[in-house]
Amino acid sequence: MAIDMEQFRQVYLEESFEGLEIMESGLLELDPGKADSEEINTIFRAAHSIKGGSATFGFEEVTGFTHVMETLLDQMRSEERDVTPEVVDLLLRSVDCLHEMFVALKAGDPINEERVSIVHHDLELVLEGEAAGATPVATSASPAEAVEESPVVSAEGWLIHFNPHPGMLRTGNEPLRILRALRELGELEVKVERDLIAVLEDHQPEECLLGWRLTLKGSAARDDVDEVFEWVEDDCDLQITPLTTVPDAAEKTATAPVVAADAVTTAPVKAGKQPPRKKGGGKQQSSSIRVAIEKVDGLVDMIGELVITQSMLSQIGDNFTIDLLERMREGLQQLERNTRELQESVMQIRMLPISFVFNRFPRVVHDLSQTLGKQVELVISGEGTELDKTVLEQIGDPLVHLVRNSIDHGIELPEERVSKGKPAVGTVNLNAYHQGGNIVIEVADDGAGLNRQAIINKAVEQGLIDEGAELPDAEVFDMLFRPGFSTAKEVTDVSGRGVGMDVVRRNVRTLGGNVEVTSNVGQGSTFVVRLPLTLAILDGQLLRIGNEIFIIPLVSIIESIQVNMDYVNSIAHQAEVYKLREEYLPIVRLHERLQLEEGNSDLENGLLVVVEADGKRAALMVDDLLGQQQVVIKSLETNFHKMKGLSGATILGDGTVSLILDVSGLMSDSLLPTMKQGLGEGQGAGQHGAPVIH
Domain ranges in the chain? Predict the structure, then answer.
């Protein structure tokens, strides 16, 4: 009987990715000059397992590549070869290359043979006793995002076909800003492609239906061009082609791959990331999760208890008399307990330790510190803290940017640190812990701290604030998250274009969290990310507005108060504010904001719910507070369509549907513009930013 090996392919690929993580962490732990035989054995075993599995599944490219790596590791294990920084860097590049190969195999795409040949050739040169070709150090966020080392360099420039996906504008990315960044790299010719534009009446303003054919002339490196498109690579179709190519020095060796002069580079922006697939094309990728057997055993036990309770209730129902009423009530209470425990057990299955994300950062710090000439020690704690798999998958990129930012802008150069009386080696702390119903992730450094005055000067220059404005630190640091805002004096491969921190905040908000910043000059900065443990269930406060029931996440609520009309005032006769302990809170009348016909319009007969989002507070006017309960979130976008001010819906115990309010959306869409308009009409602000009240 023939065995279908395809069913084991996915398991092998997942195990291979885990093996690559083991190899990478082991290589980063190696101390050049001091061979740790046990560590090298661990790396060797991981490579050997990958090689054996690849032969089973017919992945010949992987088999041949890992065989050369095995030989080099075996020489190090037997102490025939010294552990040197050059060899460790080459093996790290090899791990990156293997990662790219597995990403391609998983997606069903062809392997980048050009890239594999270069690294394979360098491995053979080292085995023959020669130095490998000089290769730039990768500064990527992870092995999957290693910077592509192309064997061709541009002599005249690049031809770029940039076609954003229709929904790219909704992610906050602005094509015009990308074109401006490209113009800084050389002479840019722009041709608009309008093939997708349909009848104007059918056009949705939030959709991007334009494409661009860009000719960038000059000596800009491919890495510089890639960096411009870094944050939109998954939201566009991108093709970058050298205008004219000449052989690199590596091609002068007899065994190096030769690239034709008219070769077209169709690789993705960063090696290891596959080009975005068009809708309807490609295979449907499955996703799996490993679960501890203890969790599965607990789930089976819960099911057993549930079956017993169901059997008892069924028996009572078949022979019901009034004497059995108390037993039925007890049975229903037991059913409620079983259901709650079952829910918790199922949710635990989706919980994974954050170490799955944290494990990538030693490599990020290693590569980036070498590139910037800095000495950085990464301290990780709380890696066993668990959170939902969906949250885990989406928080990786924002954390990478925060860590890179800490090293680039925070940690000083060794000589500068010594002159300030600090150790030459800077420290970046990455910590995670539970707090209430949230997970808190901190990225802290002991660097120079944020330059408050530089941020204010840049904000004044961009017209965000008036010169001489008195702002608290929280509002000043909040400027960092504005699109296009950067205080960097020059643009580098790492940062300086003002693209990144706004994406960090947007991604964290999408997950229902927020980002806070604290900083002390000369001592360092701390970025705190707060996220819900799961996106499926939240603790909510039920409230009534007119005849409708809505829910606000408890995590957003500070307090609720009875209205005292003595503390209600207005700004420019447009926006209402409530004075609460020397703080002026803008009032949002929810029945007006949500366009409800029913609802109390008299503030004196209503309640104010004080909420906080993105470091700002407001008072939401409601008719009544009803109670608190856990609710299961249903996506509006999936089942209906996205609506501003609403983050989802849930089904209450009586079967009715209740909408979940998006506090951040309510404040940004309706509240803040009104406040700015009122203050902009000559009303000004009092000391510490307090509005002048009529």
Answer: 6-142, 152-252, 293-349, 353-532, 537-689
Tokens of 99: 């990662």
Task: Please state, as a whole number, how many other Cβ atoms lie within 10 Å of the Cβ of residue 376.
Answer: 22
Residue range 138-188, pLDDT digits in tens: 333 343 333 333 333 444 788 898 888 887 877 767 788 888 888 888 888
Residue 619: what are its φ and ψ, rounded to 5°?
-115, 115
pLDDT of residue 445: 93
Mean pLDDT of the chain: 76
Query: Ranked by mean pLDDT, which of 92-106, 249-263, 480-494, 666-680 comes out on top?
Result: 92-106
- Round to whole Å and give the CA distance between 405 and 505: 14
In contact, 620 and 611? CB cutoff 8 Å: yes
The CATH number given to 6-142 is: 1.20.120.160
**Residue 412: band (very low, low, confident or very high) from pLDDT cuts 50, 70, 90:** very high
Give the C-alpha distances (Å, rounded to integers) separating 357 from 16, 228, 247, 284, 458.
17, 25, 39, 24, 33
Question: Within 10 A of 401 (CB to CB), how many other CB atoms are there?
Answer: 21
Q: Which of 163, 338, 405, 514 is the catalytic position?
A: 405
Roughly how many angstroms between the first and final C-alpha of the chain, as a whole number? 87
The one catalytic residue in 14, 18, 39, 48 is 48
Pairing of strands 548-553, 657-661: parallel
537-689 domain in CATH 2.30.30.40?
yes
Q: How confident is the model at residue 415 (pLDDT cuts 50, 70, 90)?
A: very high
Torsion sign (Cα): 246, 249, 251, 254: positive
| DSSP 8-state symbol, 109 | P
Q: What is the pLDDT of residue 628?
A: 86
Residue 70 appears among annotated catalytic residues: yes
Residues 6+ positions from 441 with CB-CB distance below 8 Å: 354, 395, 399, 430, 431, 432, 528, 529, 531
Got the DSSP string for 57-90?
HT-HHHHHHHHHHHHHHHHHHTTSS---HHHHHH
Grade residue 496 by pLDDT with cuts at 50, 70 and 90.
very low
State the pairing for strand pair 583-589/616-622. parallel
Question: pTM surpassing 0.85?
Answer: no
Q: How much is the average pLDDT of 451-458? A: 86
| Residue 555 near residue 562 (C-beta atoms within 8 A) | no
The CATH code belonging to domain 152-252 is: 3.30.70
Query: Is residue 273 scored above 60 in pLDDT?
Result: no
**Strand arrangement of the beta sheet that strand 514-520 belongs to:** 376-381, 426-435, 438-445, 524-532, 514-520
Q: Which amino acid is at 291?
A: V
Compute, in degrees rounded to 10, the torsion defined by CA atoms 375, 381, 385, 390.
Answer: -10
The answer, yes or no, to whether residue 209 has pLDDT greater than 50, is yes
Phi, psi for residue 526 in degrees, rounded to 5: -135, 125
Mark whether 48 is an active-site residue. yes
Q: Which of 646, 665, 589 shows the shortest CA–CA distance to 621?
A: 589
Q: What architecture does CATH give domain 353-532?
A: 2-Layer Sandwich (3.30)
565-604 pLDDT, tens digit each: 888 887 766 678 888 887 888 888 888 888 887 767 788 8
Q: Active site includes 639? A: no
Which two three-digit tokens encode residue 82?
A: 């010294």
Q: Kindly state the average pLDDT of the residues 524-549.
A: 85
Q: Which of 14, 70, 251, 548 is catalytic?
A: 70
pLDDT exceeds cutoff 80 at 656? yes
